[in-house]
């Protein structure tokens, strides 16, 4: 328990959040009031507060942990919540049901599949599967207004498949079924009749309102109004007709308001600007070609456009609904549920008789990030709540997923409606950003109309700081300038820290570039490339990376061996074949891959390269059909060592591809590599650009590179420095979305279609996006922007008049959607803000980028780069001068900027490696050096049978999975082991691994309760980080906790001298509420079966801790210089270095 | 000077990028399957027009020609259009309707241009050859029509949008000077030259005949009309004549031909001027993923 920490020696690790809650937080934590809503500003510790409140319930109120359900959006957030609770509560923390909004649905549906009427073996459809289904149901679409083209000049983006996918997404997120749409629209004939409605209105305007003066227009209002009423009265009272009727009703109101104003003018009671008489005809769309002379172009108020676009969406929907229905049938047939479907099905289940039974599983429901929930998730949450025991946190100012169906009103009006007794508590004390940043955030968000609750963020406990906090950078005037060089210069200055107005030099990982859209990132990334600034791009941004292209080409070529372009790419870039050999391979009528296989090596100029390529390709082609995509990919990287050829940046970029591969076919058995996967890669950008950006995924953050991501992805993260590029009205302009009005009328009733201006709604969301971006910054916020048009501030008199006259039922305002963001930012800046345009954004201060000495000259990096190329060319041409040849290139200060010591993380293995040889430790654990290039890694291990390591791995992983799945009999273990072996094609190791299982089942361990398996830990000892995994923790029949490390090897360990086990016990102090003092090895290899354990007392632990600390302190002075040569060199990944004794200088693959 | 005879399309590939010519024509590297559908549609309307012209006599009534063309179209569609080329039946049906509408409009008995093309056709799919300055050229003309003053060669296209026109003929010189990259229009110029000069070697050519050359975009304008029971498509075509451009820019065009022809026969495949080609030709190129010139711009052969 957390309170017991005094019993332990002072060096024992303490839980991360051992800080006292602030008064605002304390009030929330201690309160008994439910339901409660906490509107918490950015950086106010809302998740911390929620976790503490749960802890309070368990510790102080005696609520059983398994009666609490905690919901969040991302798996990361759910995991981190579970970990925090675990750290505070010990094992009890693990009994809390912490889920994402989607995973709880998955869980409920699995448990209640029968009641939900679905097959319990259902799986969640991946994006690729969804796309495949959409292609299969294209012929179900009823093509009338939708063009049947699947792809066109712009590829698939505007084709029927993309249209259908988007339509299904929009509808399903709001819980709208094909049946709902069918009922709303009715027969096609009628929709087509209605589609002419806006033309009718325009004709009325044109027929009656074309008078040339206020008085003549005034005279014709009654006729126009009568016609409108007549038109309106032809419409029915419900569904689509009610929407159209409501629109005409609003126009009738408008006519009345205009008539009143014109009357007042004629009576001399109201001034009207020139040309005001044209306004009625204009507003009703009577002018064929936009605004007539005298009406400002940017008024943007031809109201019939809204009716027109709604009806045109209805026409599209009329065609696509049948496709949507077919898609649903197809999902069911394939036993798949898509992501949105999980919530739809669960919400439906909660309407069935089992709803109470399900809701009774929990007494308390806690919800994080509630502003991002959509309508269905809201219904789900409310149906899970019993006795009003609901706790909700969120921030309406950070609601930025409305465009993906989130319903911001959920956290405000909807909650008010659903829970009359709702208690509100604010959280406004910020622990993240410096006050000037918060001042800007507070001021800027004030510009938000319709803001529901007003929060003012206030920093508490601000540490001392000496530097600029809020900086602006004015974009260059030239139209084609994107300002990327400015940001490059800013980042260089931040990294060097030499400028007086910076408090310190920042590491690349301290800096984040948060962009509104992908296009904003591209030019800056190019500048980073040029300047050698490391960066990492998060998931949904795409980059063009040559190295990743080569890896992708390898997959393409394996999937489609006919694709000779990809083969050429691979042969050129990975195997570096010369032009002559490539020509030999391309010659002839045979497929390149056949030529590669069959042509005698002597016909090539560089036999060894061709031979290597041939071996790899044949081996991989052989594997292709019989192994999963992920496994093939791993084999590809293993066999070809392709990563060795990539730059550090390219390796980072590769992570994106790896994600896609991991996610492909998210089922128990992943499909092999197929052309379909390659196709899905091609469509990935166009089709899933938007769906990839959902609140449910959060990117991994790089510690050693500038993080580049969209602001949406940055939610929940914070960085010492945040840069936001291109804050301009144009670049941030909101745009309306398809199906807005249709979706709203289906969700909220026909009259809701025209009750709101969706552009205004999106403009509000844009402001909130900026708010989220600003509040990510801790120390320094750099905003780059500009105003296109400084003089466009005068409001046209006609606009002014319209503003006054428009009746409340017309939601559209003049000049809607214009968002003068940069002007607003300028207005909100406080005195502390500084302009970096002419300073840190225009030139570097101090020595940035480093220099290189060559041939007596000091060269800048770029010049040196060119020099190397020149020298290389000279070598190729054989005219390298002898003098230059002797000169070594000396890189005195390549990085130039701050070079902080790499942060070391230790593990038992790394410590052991250090004991063996400091140099190998330095290479493998400090600088993460590439392994030496091994000619044919593929032959490794194949000669001397199965590797012990492979057997051990198979046993360990089987044990882990068995523990996690609650499998406790031998047959169950066998099954898991079989599956794992076939997945990773290590069938060779299977018999030996099964023998290990047999030995395990001869031990007493299987009869004990397993508490934890493969438990990850992180220890902080005197500022050193020590991490690792504990194989297993058991509870013995005497209720004692026992730490076990499995050994499948033949080596016996001496327990008296052991350091590994005490390290685990040290870690356990932090992990379990009960002290753990006994640990041991379970031998399941040939020297087993046996278990040897011993008890370690505090003194033993302290001694090992001192020993380990001394080791880690010594390691802190790591160096390449020291090494110990010996037997271990034969296994070293760097044994081609000179330190290796001569007998071991060949790679492990060649060892006799 | 080499006597090798080359087609306008080979020359145009070279004019697009010499390295592209190397990959496509010399090394014959197989690019990943590109969508076959437009290729097959091209075959269908070409063969429909040609067969109709072949089978038509000078005084066949318009309705007869029209009905004949539609029958031929239906047969050709079944013959060359494959369901595998389309992701859905609906897509295929839509494309059929569009192509059919184009043929329908071209052979419209009431004023369709195709009626005249069919009645006056001398020959279709006519193989022509010529040699100027020792550079041999060859090609196949879609249709050669007898006019009052001489001959009119027609090359049928899907669309003539973006092709060589009076307004854009100036770009030919820029391309030759390495100041612009205009491979599509250069290709049109190569076609014009090959057919106008080539047809003069045919037996039906008589001295003094005026030879004209036009492209004809059968689907230059297509429209889609939505109705409660489905959709209707219509299409309309028109010609783009390049005879005068050929005459006015004769020297430039032959300069372009000589440059490409000599480059090919001398096996010079260096992509020059590199920056221009890298910017203009690389983005849409089938071989960009394997092209050493593009992948490592610092390293030149």
From TrEMBL, chain A:
The record's annotation in InterPro entries points to: DNA_helicase_UvrD-like_C (IPR014017), DNA_helicase_UvrD/REP (IPR000212), P-loop_NTPase (IPR027417), PDDEXK-like_dom_sf (IPR011604), PDDEXK_AddAB-type (IPR038726), Restrct_endonuc-II-like (IPR011335), UvrD-like_ATP-bd (IPR014016)
Span of domain UvrD-like helicase ATP-binding: 19-434
Drop me one GO molecular function for this one.
DNA binding
Enzyme Commission code: 5.6.2.4
GO biological process: what's one of them? Answer: recombinational repair
Residues engaged in binding ATP: 40-47
- Catalytic reactions on record: ATP + H2O = ADP + phosphate + H(+); Couples ATP hydrolysis with the unwinding of duplex DNA by translocating in the 3'-5' direction
User: Is the keyword Signal assigned to this protein?
Assistant: no
- Region feature Disordered, mapped onto this chain: 1-23
User: Any idea what this protein is called?
Assistant: DNA 3'-5' helicase
From TrEMBL, chain B:
InterPro entries, per database record: PDDEXK-like_dom_sf, PDDEXK_AddAB-type
Top-level lineage group = Archaea
Q: Which Pfam families match?
A: PDDEXK_1
**Where does the record place the PD-(D/E)XK endonuclease-like domain?**
5-291
Gene3D superfamilies linked: 3.90.320.10
Q: What is this protein called?
A: PD-(D/E)XK nuclease family protein
